[in-house]
Design goal:
The complex is a heterodimer of chains A (277) and B (112).
Chain A: E1 2-6, H1 14-27, E2 32-36, H2 44-48, E3 53-65, H3 75-79, E4 85-86, E5 94-95, H4 105-109, E6 115-130, E7 133-140, H5 148-159, E8 167-171, H6 178-184, E9 189-194, H7 198-213, E10 218-222, H8 231-239, E11 244-247, H9 252-259, H10 269-276
Parallel strand pairs in A: 1-8, 1-9, 2-7, 2-8, 9-10, 10-11
Antiparallel strand pairs in A: 3-6, 4-5, 6-7
Chain B: E1 2-7, E2 25-32, E3 35-43, H1 53-63, E4 68-71, H2 76-85, E5 88-91, H3 96-104, E6 109-110
Parallel strand pairs in B: 1-4, 4-5
Antiparallel strand pairs in B: 1-2, 2-3, 5-6
Classes of the chains: A alpha/beta (277), B alpha/beta (112).
Chain lengths: 277, 112
């Protein structure tokens, strides 16, 4: 079973809850694979106190111009939707590497085969283990624009190992953009983690809308439930025809575990798992 | 020589923009000797681009044949484009007209 943990706003507790669920299942004898797909700043290993090791680099193709064959026509630049190839009349085109997503459109468009291939490292995949829990984290190389490429590469790497596990928990980035969508694809169920604040409620609307569009079964988890009134969250949840399956209090005990790099424990973990099954 | 100034408005009296890639206008000025003989404002169509605004704005002004850029600041990617193309970048402030005058008199600090 693949459970994705998402939520829109940053800081609502996505990673805290993804690691808590993973830890709870593992402690109850289940074999769990946790995928940290918040590749811009993966930190589930810190929350769990697991040491991770770099397993492999994520590479993409980048064009290498052969200026002996180039006729300065500018077609490579014209077809590049990422604005990664700069072309100025009567000069040779050149690449701004960090923008390139390796789509090869330039290579296809070049009429004189002046584009060869090179590789660039856009991120890395890390792995770590604690008893029944295996953690795989993707990490984007700083400065690279398109993080969904690293999300997809990490998922592909994990897919080969998935058979050995009963549960795959997917921790997504904040937001509703490409890297979040890439992480959510192929999940069986998604948990939208939110808190009763105006910003989180606004972002909850966005993520629920996305989950509906993706036709992905989903529930709401209300974190820090006691810091403000929850009427708005209830309203939005009802409007999008789902329900709040757990309310987690803002408590000393949770903050304490969080501050010391231990997996968080709370009463409603079992309710979450019962609801998603 | 042709120079491009990142500008907040269309006029020579407009202020120089503090940013390059996402400034609203470029004033393209033709300088001969110590005089501005022609100037025109163009809209920066890259201004609201999600990513790579600096790169495409740089590409566009380079295609107009400018030899120098005057701007408040410039991002690393637009700077890399100008560096590669051998186009000089100068730091400007105040109105476009004042900063062009200072440029002609060689008083502007060169950033690239």
């Amino acid at each position: 079973m693949r459970i994705a943990v998402t939520g829109g706003k940053g800081g609502t507790g996505k990673s805290t809850i993804a690691t808590a669920i993973s830890n709870y299942l593992a402690e109850n004898g289940k074999k769990v694979l946790l995928l940290d797909l918040d590749v811009d700043c993966p930190n589930d290993h810190l929350l769990l106190g697991i040491k991770i090791k770099r397993e492999q680099a994520v590479e993409t193709m980048i064009p290498k111009f052969n200026y002996e064959k180039c006729i300065k026509c500018g077609r490579c630049s014209k077809v590049c939707r990422e604005n990664a190839i700069v072309f100025v009349k009567n000069k040779y085109p050149f690449l701004v590497k960090e923008q390139c997503i390796g789509c090869r459109a330039c290579k296809i468009a070049c009429p004189t085969n002046a584009i060869e291939e090179e590789k660039q490292t856009i991120g890395w995949i890390y792995k770590g283990k604690k008893d029944n829990l295996t953690l795989i984290s993707g990490r984007l190389r700083p400065g690279i624009e398109e993080s969904s490429l690293v999300v997809n590469a990490t998922k592909k790497y994990a897919k080969k190992l998935e058979k050995k596990f009963e549960y795959v928990i997917i921790d997504t980035a904040a937001g509703t953009h490409c890297p979040v969508i890439a992480a959510l694809l192929e999940a069986d169920v998604a948990l939208a983690v939110t808190e009763p604040t105006p910003l989180a409620i606004n972002d909850l609307k966005l993520i629920l809308n996305l989950l509906k569009k993706m036709k992905l079964r989903h529930f709401v988890v209300l974190n820090k439930a006691n810091i403000a009134a929850k009427r708005e969250v209830e309203k939005i949840t009802k409007q999008s025809k789902t329900r709040i399956i757990a309310e987690i209090p803002y408590s000393r005990e949770i903050i304490d575990a969080y501050a010391h790099g231990r997996a968080v424990k709370f009463d409603s973990l079992n309710e979450i798992l019962k609801a998603v099954e | 020589m042709k120079v491009a100034v990142s500008s907040l408005g269309r006029e020579l009296q407009s202020n120089v923009s503090l940013v390059f890639g996402r400034c609203p206008f470029f004033i393209i000025a033709e300088i001969e000797g110590d005089k501005i003989i022609k100037s025109e404002a163009i809209e920066n169509s890259s201004m609201n681009q999600a990513t790579g605004a600096g790169i495409s704005a740089a590409e566009r002004v380079a295609n107009l044949g400018v030899k120098a850029i005057i701007t408040g600041n410039i991002g690393p990617r637009a700077a890399a484009v100008f560096q590669q193309l051998g186009i000089e970048v100068y730091k400007g402030s105040g109105t476009v007209e004042e900063t062009l005058k200072n440029f002609i008199e060689g008083k502007l600090e060169r950033m690239l």
